[in-house]
Every structure is written in structure tokens, then in C-alpha cells.
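Before a computer can learn anything about folding, someone has to put a protein's shape into writing. The outcome of that step, for a single protein, is printed below:
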Amino acid sequence: MAQPWNGIERRAQNLAECCPAEARMRSILQASPAAIGLTIDRVIQSVNPAMTTLTGYSSEELIGQPARLLYPGEADHDLAGREKYARIAQGGVEVVETRWRRKDGASVHILLSSVPIDPADLSRGVSFVALDITARKQLERQRLADMEMQREVLVREVHHRIKNNLQSVAGLLRRELGGFMELAPHLDKAITQVHAIAVVHGLQSADPDEAIRLCDTVSHICTTVREQTLRPVELHIENEHSSFRPVQINRDEAVAVALILNELILNAVKHSPEPAGAPRISLAADGERAQVVIRNTQAGTGEFDLETDTGLKTGLRLVKSLLPEQGARLSFSRDAAKQLTAHLCLEFPVVQAISCKGA
């Protein structure tokens, strides 16, 4: 004969002959694969065998103990209690997802359904049914992770294809340079601009988190300008091996920043006399903010003012129109040695600390 599983069921067994319904209920409780129990004032009064299997506690270890025993922490216990009794007070059946802690310390996800014995008198107790949904939650997390991975692969592939197509466009434009000499300066600029946009998509296709690091962007644009103009460009990372901390560009501003950098570096090369030496691009960053400084010897004495648009040519007009309203400042200075210096300061929301998914 099966052993009775708690005090209430022992009484039910004694009454079985004169109360067949009680016997049937006991049979159902014993056979149920779902953990079932009764609490009064959140103290466990009775449990069925499935409850002991789920929790790892014997019925003797559970009966008389506060329900808090089953929860990994006060937060889970309090939240489940608030939600359960708020719904019960409204006359409904409360179903909540929560976590329990087994006797061996393992955490399990639980779908907990509770209903009062007498909605008008909670002192008579609340019965509950608990289902272990840990495996379901794990499958759900894995499904979401797989979907996210598929999305990342697709997005990176799209960026890769855009980069390749843009490079093809640049190649087609380069083929036309010899046929339309009067358009050569304009085609040169268009080619470097297309390459600058391709840099952004190339970086997004190469990084698992689609991060666009400012230092990588500056480096790629310097390389493109060198190849396009056949002129040297010096790139220097300030304190590269000590205090330098890279930043990433906000994706919404990445193309604008790339075009601004391309225009400033290209102008520095084109407006420097070749004997004066290569323009120097310096990059400093502290993990949250960055500054790009572009120095070159200026040919001629043309004056311009970015604020008033005085003396601005097409390139600087484009730079001014692309400059983000927040998080970016551009200024110029000139010294007695005809050195022109452009200071591009970038901060949030244009750039920010590098973040990795899942970190």
C-alpha cells in the first residue's frame, strides 16, 4: 500500500470508505505529474509526491515551512507574493512565472498557478500548482539567441555587399578620369567620398557587434586618400600604448563623420604644397570622447570663417552641412608658419564607449 503523503491525506485515507470523492481526490493528487500543494498565510500545509520530486525536499521537510524556503531570494519571493495575492483579491486565478530553488541549490523556472479555497476567506488557504518550465525557458533563450545570430549574419552580409558595390562604383568612376580631364577634380572627390561611405559598411561587416571604431575609420580614410592622391599622409595615435582608449561612432552618424573626415583630410593634402611635407593627422581618445587634429602647411593665404560661411568653398560647405548639431565641434587655427590646424572634437551622442553584445 502506498504511504500517505501528508497529514491531510492520511485523514482522507481514513475517510475513503465513507467518502469516495475524498479517495478519488487523493488518487489524483498522488498520480499528478504537476507539483500541487496548499498554503495558509504562505506557510506550506500539504504537498503531493510530485512536489517533493520537483523541489528535492521530503514532505516532512516542506510541511510547516514558510513558502520562502522555495525561493532563491527575497526579491523573487516578494514579487510572486504581491502578484499572486493582488490577483486573488480580485477573484481570479493567479498564474505567474517565478523561480524556485531546489534543496540541492539548483534554480528552476516555475509556472505557478494559485487559487483560494474560499475567495471570501483567505485564511482557509490557497492551493497551488507548480510546473517546471526550465527546459522551455532554455529552449526559448536558445531560439532567441539563434535568431539574433541569424540577424547579425544577415546584417553583416548586407554591409559587406554594400561595401563591395560602392567600391565597384568608385572603380567605374576612376575609369572615367582619363576621358574627362575637365571633370577629374570632381571625380577625384566623388571617388574618395564613395570610398569613405564604403569604409563605414566595411567596418560594420567585419565586426561581430557592428561597431564602427573611430580609429579604424580614420585609418581607412587616410589609406584611401593616400591611394587616390598618391601623396603621403601621416597618422599618429596619441598615447597609443598607454592612455589611449578607442571609441565607436554612433551608427546614425557614421556616414556623416566618415565624409567629414574624408573632406578634411583630402583638403589638407590638396591644399598643401608637396615640398612642405605630409599632412599630419593625430587622434586622441579616452574611451568616451575623441579629438582628431589635422595639420598641414597651407598653400596661399585664403581666409575663411566656418561660422559666417565667409570664404568657404564646396568642401567646407559640405563639412558644415554634415556636422552633427550635438556631440561635434569643428574649429580651425593658423600659426605664423602657415600651418593650418583643424580640430574636430567628438563626444556623446556622436561617439561613445565601445560596447559588446552580451557584456
Notes: Residues 134-175 form the longest helix (42 residues).
